[in-house]
Amino acid sequence: MNKNEAWKRKIAYQIYPRSFNDANGDGIGDLKGITEKLDYLKELGIDYVWICPVYASPMDDGGYDISDYYSINPMFGTMEDMDELLAEAKKRNIKIIMDLVLNHCSDEHIWFQKALADPNCEEAEYFYFRNSENGAPNNWRSMFGGSAWEHVGNGRYYMHLFSKKQPDLNWENPKLCEKLYEMIRWWLDKGLGGFRIDAITHLKKEPTLSSLEPDGDDGMVACFGPTRNYPGIGDFLTELREQTFDRYDCITVAEAAGVPYEQLGEYIGENGYFSTLFDFSYSELYAYGHAWHTCKKAWEWPITWLRDKMFASQIETEKIGFGAVYFENHDYPRASEKFIPTEYQSDISQKMLGTLFFFLRGIPFIYQGEELGMTNTVFESIDDVDDISTKNHYGLALADGLTPEEAIKAVNRYSRDNGRIPFPWTSGANGGFSDVTPWMKPHPEFARFNAEDEAKDENSVLSYYKEMVKLRKSDEYVEALSVGSISPIMLDCDDVIAYTRTDGSKRVAVVCSFSPVDITVNTEIVGKKLLLANYKDATLPENGALALAPFEAIVFEI
Ligand code: NOJ
Ligand code: CA
Questions:
Q1: Please, are residues 464 and 449 in contact by the beta-carbon 8 Å criterion?
Q2: What separation in angstroms does the CA of 222 have from each of 142, 147, 292, 393?
Q3: Which residues surround the ion ligand 2 when the cut-off is CB under 5 Å?
Q4: Residue 55 Cα to ligand 1 middle (Å)
Q5: Alpha helices, DSSP H only, in 217-302?
Q6: By the 8 A CB rule, do 363 and 324 touch?
Q7: Can you list the positions of beta strands (E) in 477-538?
Q8: pLDDT tens-digit profile of 432-478?
Q9: Residue 3: pLDDT over 80
Q10: I need a surface site. Which of 146, 231, 351, 463 has the fewest CB within 10 A?
Q11: To which H or E segment does residue 262 belong?
Q12: Are 225 and 212 spatial neighbours (Cβ–Cβ below 8 Å)?
């Protein structure tokens, strides 16, 4: 596994395959569709492409419920299509990162089917089955709501931390582990660039599986305490690394929620389990509250919250290793909805948000459509929604007495389906995504943001992203902007998030204003050279002050 190498100077892009590009005209994005668009990614300057799961799956949770790790879901194409994608990507120096789901599989996987049929078979030990006379074996709540246990008859239950169609795999069983390692090596042998690894901090469960003090009126308790980064998980993760990733030239990006900074070294330090990880501490500020309809809106909390958490994450990570940075992914609404009040959402504020995250210390992951400045979409009714967690929260809103109209409005804001709608390639029919009606409604405003028109417009968000990529990769600034150290600046101005990136004598400042009006920031910093800005007439700091227009972003050498 690759810990200290060139990947730190590279740029990654995340694809939600079902909604990226439909090559065969059935309304669903597919692998051939990705291959067709490799030149678009190349042109943008992308080096790594993470593709959300394309394995065989009943798609209960967008493919994170895998029924066969060795085959491709026909919806996305064939294994030949996958091999073609890998070969074509290689020609363009692009590496493919697959999604690796090891905490659970699908209830339609043959292992689970055998386990259901025969409680005494080997496969029954691959899962968490328990017998219980009086309801669920414990009071743990699943991540998607409701009990984490499903009854299969005769007092026999199995555990699922996510949906009931995602039975948890039992990593205490060495035979299961060996099967999974074999599968991982099989994929790496194909020449993958690496894996993004799903929900990996949940592999170890509190061994007695005991009920805990309830934390809600439902009598249940969130399953984080007994199943997230639980002591002993390190043994599993060390063996996983030794049996698989360590033997290949690949990178591993862990989805590792719940790792305290004191333990970061175990995960991504010199001998850590993974190359890098996603830290969620600053991207979920908006989602506090028991259900989406009771959550705060982005702009109802001070921007200093975001600043403090983001810098804490950056500074702690720099002490230990190298992070993976992002502002959007397939599990979130669009970033503008989280961080910018509706009336100020514009190309300017989109470029500002992009700048803020893109130059943080870590490998940047751009999420499809982010580079076009896509905003949230509009779901008219729950029938427009596919996502299981959105449906659950819609139900919670109805149960709290909201009307269907109020409930859909409330969940619209936070729904992860906002990021899962078809990618707008052109202003033509279906946004150029497909020749037929797509599986999800396209964004109503795709005429405003689409790849074809934005590529021709030098002021578009897409053109701005290309400039950001070029700057980060330029010979002159690549060290400072990738591995260079990070320090917060301008901390006495609450409307601004600003930092410097430093490598030796090269110093670059990144300043982002969240203020909707003109402001002036006092600063002793002297600007040497303007590198990038979201306003044409941006100026460098002068006489101890920096003037910033509304939502201005400016990058300059010091
Ligand atoms: C995290 C994935 O990103 C999300 O989409 C999925 O629902 C859960 N893990 C369960 O696999
Ligand atoms: Ca298709």
A1: no
A2: 7, 10, 16, 16
A3: 22, 24, 26, 28, 30
A4: 14
A5: 224-227, 233-243, 264-268
A6: yes
A7: 485-489, 496-503, 506-513, 519-522, 529-533
A8: 999 999 999 999 999 999 999 999 999 999 999 999 999 999 999 99
A9: no
A10: 231
A11: none
A12: yes
Name the CA dihedral angle for 101, 106, 110, 115, rounded to a multiple of 10 degrees: 110
Looking at residue 452, its amino acid is: E
Nearest atom within ligand 1 for CA of residue 416: 5
Domains along the chain with CATH numbers: 6-101+250-468 (3.20.20.80), 483-557 (2.60.40.1180)
Distance CA 39, CA 324 (A): 24
**Atom of ligand 1 minimally distant from the CA of 61:** 7
Catalytic site residue from 198, 370, 417, 495 = 198
Residue with tokens 């499809």: 368
Residue-wise pLDDT for 96-136, tens only, equals 999 999 999 999 999 999 999 999 999 999 999 999 999 99
Confirm whether pTM is higher than 0.85.
Answer: yes
135 conformational bin, left if phi > 0, alpha if psi -120 to 50, beta if neither: left
Q: Which residues contact 396 (CB under 8 A, 6 or more apart)?
A: 145, 290, 291, 292, 293
pLDDT tens, 149-159?
A: 999 999 999 99
**Helix, strand, coil share (%) of the chain residues, nearest 5:** 35, 20, 45
Query: What amino acid is encoded at 29 in this protein?
Result: G
Ligand 1, pocket-test mutation among 18, 142, 198, most atoms within 8 A of CB? 198
Bridge partner list, 501? 486, 508
Angle at 64 between CA 48 and CA 420, to 5 degrees: 65
Token pair recorded at residue 66: 């895998």
Strands of 529-533's sheet, edge to edge?
Answer: 485-489, 496-503, 506-513, 553-557, 529-533
Please, are residues 143 and 242 in contact by the beta-carbon 8 Å criterion? no
For residues 216 and 197, give the distance between their C-alpha atoms in angstroms, rounded to a whole number.
Answer: 30
CB atoms within 10 A of CB 220: 21
Q: How far apart are CA 495 and CA 516, in angstroms?
A: 9
Best residue among 61, 201, 389 to mutate for probing ligand 1, ranked by most atoms within 8 Å of CB: 61
| Shortest-distance Cα residue to atom 5 of ligand 1 | 331
Distance CA 190, CA 53 (A): 16
Residue 274 CA to residue 254 CA, distance in Å, equals 7
Question: Residues of the chain with pLDDT > 90: what percent?
Answer: 91
The DSSP string of 320-370 is: H---EE-S--TTS--HHHHHS-GGG-SHHHHHHHHHHHHTSSSEEEEETTG
Helices (H) and strands (E) in the chain, counts: 16, 22
What one-character-per-residue DSSP string does 35-102 give? HHTHHHHHHHT--EEEE---EE---TTTT-S-SEEEEE-TTT--HHHHHHHHHHHHHTT-EEEEEEE-
Checking DSSP bridges between strand 194-198 and strand 251-255, what pairing results, if any?
parallel
Q: Shortest CA distance to 551 belongs to which of 264, 376, 289, 347?
A: 347
